Amino acid sequence: MKYLLSITLIILAMNVSAQELNKKIHDAAHNKEILINNCTRDGVVTFPEFKEMYDPLYAAYIPDAATMIELKKLIKKEQVKIVFGTWCGDSKVNVPNFFKVLDALHFKEKNVSIIAVDGHKKAENGLIDGLDIQRVPTFIVYDKKGREMGRIVEHPKTTLEGDLLAIFKKKS
């Protein structure tokens, strides 16, 4: 009996800590349905409001070839965290383009985490606490030890691939 109780408690703890992916909520700040918390790429690109801009922008974006060649030489086992809002115009433009750059780099999808925030730039359960998210989208690059190497906030200074290259060159 004691054994069964222990297993039940472990299962309950696992269910409480497991987060729902691609969670949809009504955002009072924008009075619409949005994604919140951890998302999959598929969840983001199929979310109706986001999808309408995602598909044409992704198809149209052509990363600079010379920058991409240089960038490919520098990428090792870094991690990228994308914090964005499905309601946000800059996110709707820059997230598809950023994915196009990552795809061209053959960046491993397992090394990318995607977090959707509400209209107040908050997520649930302290998911982005300590990340100092002021504007979205924010693309944060981490080295293989989990240290932040740099970030692109809201929009790139040059191009997404150019700003990524600057982040990676700082590391070298």
Automatic annotation (TrEMBL):
Alphabetized Pfam families for the sequence: Thioredoxin_9 (PF14595)
Gene3D superfamilies, per database record: Glutaredoxin
Signal peptide: 1-18
UniProt keyword annotations, A-Z: Signal
Chain ranges of the Thioredoxin domain: 51-172
UniProt-listed SUPFAM superfamilies: Thioredoxin-like
Protein name per Swiss-Prot or TrEMBL: Thioredoxin family protein
Organism: Pedobacter lithocola
Taxonomic lineage of the native organism: Bacteria, Pseudomonadati, Bacteroidota, Sphingobacteriia, Sphingobacteriales
